[in-house]
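Structure request: SGNH hydrolase-type esterase domain-containing protein, Staphylotrichum tortipilum.
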Amino acid sequence: MALSNPQIVLFGDSIIQGSADVSSGFSMQSALQADVMRRLDLVNRGFSGFNTSNALSVLPSVFAPPSPGGPELKYLFILFGANDACVELPTNFQRVPIDKYRANLTRIITHPTITAHKPKIFLITPPPLDQIRVTVLDMANGHPAAARQTKNSAAYSEVVRQVAAENAGVALIDLHKAIMDRAIEKTPGFDPKGPALGDPEGGVRGYLEHLLPDGLHLSAEAYRIFYDLVRPHVVAEWAGTRDEDRVGFVLPDWRDAPWLEEDAHLKGKSL
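Returned structure:
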């Protein structure tokens, strides 16, 4: 039976799908795969436009139950909410009410196919929203107003924090806070006690302009922030160990391979 590497699965919407993009010069997915090469396979299951209801409908097609020789789901990172948090408009149908969003997240992390693998589960807050920028682009695309709002998106991120806290064994990746903290740090003179960056009430985009170019999706710099949040969790088992460059390989490093002992002509020689 062929060996199958354990898997890290990134499950989410366009924020996850976009983590594979290399056009900016940095791919979060590629960087993570390089970190876990020969130990884990990283699988991107990002679906642009999906909300949590869509995610539940496709979940049985995305994840298979554990089986002999099948992949083991070892780490599961879940990021939905940017589309759930849309406001009601006649031109947009992605919205999921916040109470249903909470219930959907819970159903995803407790789904029998998921729990059968006993993975380490991470819930990720959606990133902040630059409503000032989003309004311009949405109206140019035929919407009567912004399809997303800063305060509403922040409320959905808070639900993710609560669901993670309420479910034992589920960890939180607070992408919303990390990106907003970077934006505040790099916006001189901004008062975080007032309206958030990107909120039309305050009228200041600040450094969100660089982190969320279209007001919603991540720039390369923002993906690096995301990467820095995720990486420690998936390398923790071998980082800092002796010979960490090859600890945990599914197939042995050439220096540790059993066939070296079988090759008589190599015995006694320096490798």
